[in-house]
Give the backbone structure.
Amino acid sequence: MTTRVAAVTGGIGGLGTAICKALARDGCSVVAADLGGDPARIARFEREVDGLDIRFMALDVSDFDACGAFVREVQSRFGSLDVIVNNAGITRDSTLRKMTHAQWQALLDVNLGSAFNLCRHAIDGMLERGFGRIVNISSISGQTGNFGQTNYAAAKAGLHGFTMSLARETAGRGITVNSVSPGYIATPMTAAMPEHVREKIVATIPAGRMGTPEDIARAVAFL
Ligand code: NAD
């Protein structure tokens, strides 16, 4: 069987770690691409995935040229880049009245620009090989909107539009492009919310709990 090479952005975060593990257990050779600024966090991740075919590579997904260098590096070290999971994401919550241009722009660059930055550099190789799997992690907020998240909801809705358009461009050439839109999942991102906000959210979820990173990782591995 061919070993597929997968890159997971935001790969050392809550969902990213679970996705890396699920893909490695399915036989992929996995690169976790994430910010390189916190050596202790990276070491913790490396301990957690010890024994699996997963390695960390530093990448700022909002940097177009860095994404190009990353794609070239992965292709030359591992032979190809077959699977991309665009999972890196941030929040910069604020009502529109108070939102700064910096909050708007940083969010768009990381949560939406990143998909363009990586896919633009990786798509030619996938088309040449006639195989590619791209999974974009959107959010339920991109469909319903969310108070204080005009930037986040716009980026996540945009990511879904990007997904559907790229899928139309490449479906006939062996490449599938999908997005997964999680509801609220228990990760550092939601742990950063104030307790009373988290409690209010959980009260609206029929299952009575947030989803787990493994719930999402299973869907990504399937796609
Ligand atoms: P997280 O904060 O645990 O992980 C996000 C990761 O992205 C972090 O490891 C962070 O270092 C990385 N990152 C941030 N900026 C980056 C950059 N410029 N370059 C590279 N990496 C960068 O959050 P999470 O909950 O695991 O979120 C993962 C994805 O799932 C995000 O796109 C988020 O929007 C989406 N999502 C999360 C939830 C949830 O409830 N947790 C719900 C819906 C969607």
About this structure: The chain has a mean pLDDT of 97. The pocket of nicotinamide-adenine-dinucleotide is lined by residues 9-10, 12-16, 34-35, 59-62, 87-90, 110, 137, 139, 182, 184-185, 187-190 (CB under 6 Å). DSSP finds nine helices and six strands in the chain.
